[in-house]
Amino acid sequence: MQITVVPASPKTGAATVRSLLADPSATVKGYYRDLNKVPAEFKAHPRFEAVKGDVEDAATLDFAGSDAVLVITPPLYEEKDIVAHAHLVAENVKAAVKKAGSVKRLVYLSSVGAQYDRGTGEILSNHAAETVLHDAAPEVVFVRCAYFMENWAMNVETIKEAGFFFTTLTPLDYALPMIAVQDIGATCAAELLATGTPLPARPHIFELHGPRAYTSVDAQKGFEAAAGRSLEMRPIPKEGLGEFYGAVFPPQVAAAFVEMNASYLEGGILYEDPRPTAGEKKYGKTELAEVLKELYGA
Ligand SMILES: NC(=O)c1ccc[n+]([C@@H]2O[C@H](COP(=O)([O-])OP(=O)(O)OC[C@H]3O[C@@H](n4cnc5c(N)ncnc54)[C@H](OP(=O)(O)O)[C@@H]3O)[C@@H](O)[C@H]2O)c1
C-alpha cells in the first residue's frame, strides 16, 4: 500500500512515518518543503521516498498512485490569518487528492475541539481544515488529538538553567487529557493501513487521549523524576495569559494561544464541551512521565 504524509516535517508527521515503516506492507512518501530536513533514519529506508513540496502551493503536490494520505495543517508562528492558512492548505490537499484519483482514504490529524467555530483560538485552524476535508476522499477519518505531552518541552530550558517552570494549566490539580506524539503516530498509521476497511461514517471522527488525564502537579513530579531534584512551579493565572504569550509570540499568534489556553480552563468552551465529539474515544499507552523524561534527556 502506498501512503503519503503531507507534510512529513511536523513531529506528528515524523512519528506517523516511523510507525508506517514498521509495517512491511507500506511504502511511504513524505513531503518536505526543505529536503535538507529529511531525518537520516528515513533517508536510507528502502520503502521511504522524500518529495519536495509545499502545502501552501497546490502545484507542488502530486499524490498519483497513493492509496491513502495523512494530512497535517502545520502550526503558524508568524503574523498570518491561521484560519485562512489552514483553509488554503486543506483546499490544496483536497484538489491534489481529487486529481490523483487513486486515494481511497484521507486521515486528517485534527484537535479536540475542532467541532467549534469560535472560542478555541489556534484550534480554529483545525476546524477550518475539517470543514474542507470532510468529503475529500471516499473514506475520511478525523483524529481529534488531545493536548500534546510534548508541549511541555518548552519548560526544559528554565528547569535546567534555574530549577523552575511556568505552567498555564490551572488550578494546579486540574486534570487535562494529554497524548504522546508517538501514540499519535501509531494511531494515524493504523488508520492509514486500514484503508478499504468499511467505516461507520464519512467523516469517521474520534478523540485520541493518553492513558489518563494529567495535572500540572503530575508534570512537576515527572520533571522532578527526570531532573533528580525538586523544582519550583510558577503558575500563570488565566488573567495573566495575555502577558505571558505576548512576551514570546507576535500579537495575532499570542491572541490565538491565549484563547486556546483559556478554552480548556474552567469557564472555557472546551471545559464545558456543549457539543462533545460523538462516538468512541481512543487511548494511547504512553504516560506523561515517560515523555517528560525523554524531553529532559534523562
Ligand atoms: N500541540 C498540541 O497540543 C496539539 C493538539 C491537537 C492538535 N494539534 C495539531 O497538530 C498538528 C501538528 O502539530 P505538530 O506539533 O506536529 O507540528 P510541528 O511539529 O510544530 O510542525 C512544525 C513543522 O511544520 C513544517 N511546516 C510549516 N509550514 C509548512 C509548509 N508550508 N509546508 C511544509 N511543512 C511546513 C515545518 O517544517 P520546516 O522544517 O520546513 O520548517 C516545521 O518543522 C497541527 O495542526 C496542530 O494544530 C496540536
TrEMBL record:
Gene3D superfamilies: NAD(P)-binding Rossmann-like Domain, UDP-galactose 4-epimerase, domain 1. InterPro entries: Ergot_Alk_Oxidoreductase, NAD(P)-bd_dom, NAD(P)-bd_dom_sf. Residues 9-161 form the NAD(P)-binding domain. SUPFAM superfamilies: NAD(P)-binding Rossmann-fold domains. It holds the Pfam family NAD_binding_10. It comes from the Eukaryota. PANTHER family: PRESTALK A DIFFERENTIATION PROTEIN A, PTHR43162. This is NAD(P)-binding domain-containing protein. It comes from Staphylotrichum longicolle.
